[in-house]
């Protein structure tokens, strides 16, 4: 099904919309076996975009025929078997690169069309999928990476995330949304799922109903980054646990049927919410769900930006979860195999991914923590990273991304490691680097956001440079960072950041961070 048309006859559909009406994105699954048999040259150019619905993008340069694949990891939770399959794909097909994204997913590079059917079979064998990981469809559902083991979570959200994720997977009722659509479901009290930057978020809430305190969710809608970022706003409703799927379907139906399809750059849910306001949105929502109770109270304490470094108590007595740094989210396949071995030997084999591009090994008995931490792999994937590399995030950038203007991942890593050699600050400084305004690396919520641009130098040659933004946060409802004047050529970026950080260090009071500075 396409969508219910709520358009007046003089409203025009954009080119992508017309193409989607010709052929639904998920139909690419029917064509992939044919293309795999006949090679990349058998894929008509006008079909390239449809691969997104299968979680596949052509990497840079497109004509070379290599794909990037994004695999959904709902709430960032991977079993031993799932992690093994992913590491195997990275090793056998992806030249050993295993990237953790800012939405808890996993990305591979260098895949050829011939390899895709076997990769799908492997993913399917352990209940994983790349369907909807890209495209105008419900993306990976982000959640609490410590769901089920979090001593502070309001309640375990694993089954709810699974139910909602599985409902939208391969669901042709919702495979033609106006644009990408991002959901988070979490009851982590430190907002580990970055609720305010999702299109729709279910956040922890309690409400007294008929004399009994019920645990459930508040609903936020209309967040999102890219060139015109918005923070999600809270709708005045309380959603009980059992109602999450119904409400998720209602919100998605509204987006599908009322979201803008004329101009692609205004097609995200955030633009509809900005125009309607949350009051009108609530009225529409209740046409689908019936009347919902008004808001309760929010127990969210603060924002941890998805960082869990160190050894922590699980809610299960005697067990620990341990948060490790993965520099700019990139692992090798061999490292992942080693992490699985360690997680299996000391715990239950599970690996969890965070929005900060880092990972967690859960279920480690207290008495095994010391010997686990002595394993050589944790010299690089460290539990207690240096501050700058430990708080650096980067998008894919020009190495693989067709939209990138500049290099990001390797540059961010080198800059962060150099800054760690040059200075220390008494608070973490979260730096996010992105290669274009699409903001996959979530530049807007960073203490220091670095956005790639091209500039013309004195010799009239084009060169890579960065805009610098400061003071982003999702603390207290959130605030996006602000742009500083000028653009910094890539060669001067480390020195410029060092100056900025020395200034910050000199002027700040103890404990003050970039947001409060
Ligand atoms: Fe590519 Fe831009 Fe996203 Fe970076 S932010 S991965 S450059 S689209």
Describe the structure.
26% of the residues lie in helices and 20% in strands. The protein is α+β, with helices and mostly antiparallel strands. The site of iron/sulfur cluster (SF4) has 13 residues, from loops.
Main sheet properties: 6 strands, mixed
Low-confidence spans: pLDDT under 50, at least 5 residues? none
Number of strands: 21
Question: How far apart lie the N and C ends?
Answer: 51 Å
Evaluate the radius of gyration.
22 Å
Percent of sequence in beta strands: 15-25%
Q: What structural class do you assign from the helix and strand content?
A: alpha+beta
Bound molecules: iron/sulfur cluster
Helix content: 25-40%
Q: What is the arithmetic mean of pLDDT? A: 96
The global form is globular
